[in-house]
Amino acid sequence: MKGHVSLTGSSVYYRYDNLRVIVIGIIMLFFIICVLFPFFWLVTASIKPQEFIISNHFYFLPPRITFDHYVTIFKFANIGRNFINTVIVAAVTVIVSLCVIIPASYALSVLKVKGGSLISRFILALQMVPTILLIIPLYIILQNLRLINTYWALILSYTTFTIPFCFLLLSSYFAGLPAELFESAYIDGANSFYSLIKIALPLTTPGIITTGTYSFLMGWNDFMFANTFTSSENVRTLCVEVIRLVGTWATQWGSLAAGASVTVMPVIIVFLLANKYIISGLTAGAVKG
Asked: pTM of this prediction?
């Protein structure tokens, strides 16, 4: 009888556990659909003929596929030039940010320089400053330096905000490295620079990729700084140009969807390629005891 009761209780437990897994799975599937459906609709709208985008009939899939919208934006909307501009700005933002962040994080977290704790707190306080408050001061500084309507106007404004956050993120990753590794290297005659190149960088690859991805997204997705500091088509980025596809009296929704797809796809590709490293980098130090 005791064995029967135990078996029954176990069966109830397993049925309850399976039901919970099914419910959680359904909820997660619902949220995944809610997240992915806008992207699906964006891509399908970009390859639909104009008459099927605005229609009385609902077309879940395009009845006929056309790439005329992509041809239009690259031929008449200067999207190709804007794409190159965005790639240049985002890539240089990543390089400049990492060149500043890596040695700074290493110095404060591994070398334990004097005043490191105070510097970290000051940088953390900088994160509390709203972005919108710095637009006018940045504009005045960039104008005095004659950098308005240049790539450097965007790069400097982006790194102003990527460096503090990425510094805090990468510092926590450097702080999680065993101090014994560096002590052994110093005993063997290695200097600080050699320890950074040969020990710290290989072990902090996920954190570096995470910070680099964040810097890339800042340089790629920004609209406010790009719209404020640039007015020339030679340096205008994708986010600003896509907004210009919205007409005053009418909007070509197919061209707008194609421009938005060109803007979004590189971000999705970067996340898919760096997903494993991003998760590892963001959880750095989460279980440090």
From this structure: 0.80
